[in-house]
Structures are given as C-alpha cells and as structure tokens.
Amino acid sequence: MILLKGMVINMAEAKIINTITDYMNDETRVNPAERERIHFEVALIGKMIEAREKKGLSQRDLAEISGIKQPAIARLESMKSTPQIDTLFKLLLPLGYTIEIVPLKRK
Prior knowledge:
Layout: E1 2-4, E2 7-10, E3 15-17, H1 20-25, H2 32-54, H3 59-66, H4 70-77, H5 85-92
Helix pairs in contact: 3-4
C-alpha cells in the first residue's frame, strides 16, 4: 500500500482510494458492523457537542457539573478516545439527554 498526496493506492489490487468515503465504503477495508459503529460514534459525539454548546457550556463547565475531567471531555469530543457507558451517562445527564436502544430502520 502506498500513500501519495492524500491517496491510498493498494498495489495488490491496483485500487486508488481518494477520500475517506471511498475508504469507508470499501468492504475489504471496513466491514458493515465497523462502519455502523463509526457512524454511531461520530453522530453521538456530534450530538453531545451540540447539546453542550446549546446549553452555553464550555468543556470546563461540563467537567464541573459532570465530574468528568475537562481533558477527558476534550479527548472524547476530538474522537481521540471512545467513551465508556458510565462516562456517557455522567456527561449526558446534565445536558438533559440519555441513551436508549432503538430498532434499526429497514432500508
């Protein structure tokens, strides 16, 4: 595999990947379950940031009311770490949210 100015070239298959979308849609690289997990995590963190900002809270403010340290919140929001369920509940509760399991929409 070669990386060339933002393109990934798989020499064995002579396939060029130009974008993250191309990479994510290539089932030889990202299986459907992993793709779903990534989309879920991106949506979850995006909603968490949106809820925090809507309440006018800084990461520091959220840290004070949730008991989660601000650097940990920063790592979650930048997707450098994956949140544990107990951490999510501690962060979401002061924002007025919770987590629930819902059926998948059929395509």
